[in-house]
Design goal:
This protein is α+β, with helices and mostly antiparallel strands and 385 residues long. The strands form three sheets. It has a six-stranded mixed β-sheet, with helices on both faces. A four-stranded antiparallel β-sheet has the order 10-11-9-12. The protein binds 2-deoxy-2-fluoro-alpha-D-galactopyranose.
């Protein structure tokens, strides 16, 4: 049964009624440009066909009743206390509700059913999909008139406040602004963006899920962000106009950061170079130069692994193994790191060969199943009903 029909069925069973609104908000991939968003740099993501679906209806009272199909769990609270439940999925939904309730008094009680097909922990941003779906649904239901950018920002703020991850705007922006068959080249400083049609002449994208999510992910993420901020503070002592790593040159890092902290220097240099790689990759995509694009992906991976130190054994194994396959133009870890997926650019029609060759090797080494994920590039958050 399709996910929107599952929502309707479950709504009927749990709430004895039809949802007033059903929305879908997608997960995302990112071709290149990791850990650049919170440094005011560029990113190159796209929304995918897999996402989170929410069905919602307003109530006469101030009760909030939530039901997750994936967890088969119900959780109730009310608009005054907005107490989070024991599971993280409730924090995301109620975190959005808290933020919007502070902005508007139009929010009253509601019933909500949620389901999704973004594999959890795979680095495809199921959490951004969930917060953006919630924010869009509440805006429609209670006439809050939120713009697309408002929705993305509320999603990001929820991640900061309700979950404690000081993420950038990439995932939420991609989920909301996604467009069929297009990548989004987003400038995270100005929030200007450009759609780049994804025409990988003769190539296709395949995601390979390591099936691991190492637990240090969120604390390590915040630590990387702090290292970048510390590097900026050091440069700022001499160059007061500098606001973020986007404004910093490699020469300034050599002069002012390297002598003080190798750790900050390495992390900051990665970000400056990752932005450069992204700009080259965007040009390579526009001129269909897949060879150059692939090389940039490999370079990004090893920099993420060795300099930014956000990879893991499983991701490194996948990337180093496919780099010996002639049908693979490029590959790298994708998203925040410490597990999740690699993104691979493979000659059209050869993905199954790669999966066949790699699956046994991966299982023998890690005793884990490698999970291939095929995605298509799709539209952003939208109403279904
Ligand atoms: C996670 C974050 F949520 C994003 O904001 C981004 O920083 C990404 O990691 C790394 O590029 O997905």
């Amino acid at each position: 049964m399709s996910l929107d029909n599952q929502i309707k069925d479950t709504f009927q069973r749990v709430f004895n009624s039809e949802p007033q609104i059903i929305v879908k908000s997608p997960g995302r991939i990112n071709v290149i440009g990791e850990h650049t968003d919170y440094n005011n740099g560029f990113v190159l993501p796209a929304a995918i066909d897999k996402g989170v679906y929410i069905g919602i209806s307003a109530r006469e009272d101030d009760k909030i009743e939530l039901f997750s199909i994936d967890y088969n769990e119900k959780y109730d609270t009310d608009t005054t206390s907005l107490t989070f439940g024991p599971e993280l999925w409730t924090n995301y939904i109620l975190g959005v509700t808290r933020i919007l309730s502070k902005k508007s008094d139009k929010i009253s009680g509601y019933n909500l059913v949620v389901v999704g097909d973004v594999p959890l922990g795979s680095g495809l941003s199921s959490s951004a999909a969930l917060t953006c779906a919630t924010s869009f649904a509440l805006s429609k239901l209670f006439d809050l008139n939120l713009s697309k950018l408002d929705i993305a920002k509320v999603g990001q703020q929820t991640e900061h406040e309700a979950v404690g991850v000081r993420c950038g705007i990439m995932d939420q922006f991609a989920s909301v602004f996604g467009q069929d068959n297009s990548l989004i080249k987003l400038d995270c400083r100005s929030l200007d963006y450009e759609y780049i049609p994804i025409e990988l002449d003769g190539y296709e994208i395949l995601l390979l899920n390591t099936n691991v999510k190492h637990s240090l992910a969120s604390s390590a993420y915040n630590k990387r962000r702090e290292a970048c901020e510390s590097a900026v503070a050091l440069v700022k002592e001499k160059y007061a106009e500098v606001e973020s790593l986007r404004d910093v040159t490699l020469a300034q890092l050599d002069e002012l950061v390297k002598p003080v902290s190798v750790e900050y220097y390495q992390k900051a240099r990665f970000v400056v170079e990752e932005n450069e790689r992204l700009l080259k990759a965007a040009e390579a995509l526009k001129s269909n130069d897949i060879k150059t694009l692939g090389q940039l992906l490999y370079a990004a991976h090893w920099a993420l692994s060795k300099e930014y130190e956000v990879s893991c054994e499983e991701l490194d194994f996948l990337v180093s193994t496919v780099s010996t396959y002639p049908e693979v133009a490029g590959a790298r870890m994708m998203g925040g790191g410490f597990g999740g997926c690699t993104i691979n650019i493979i000659e059209k029609g050869k993905s199954q060969n790669v999966i066949d060759k790699l699956s046994n090797l991966y299982f023998n080494k890690f005793n884990l199943n490698l999970i291939p994920i095929k995605v298509s590039i799709s539209n952003g958050t939208h109403e279904i009903l």
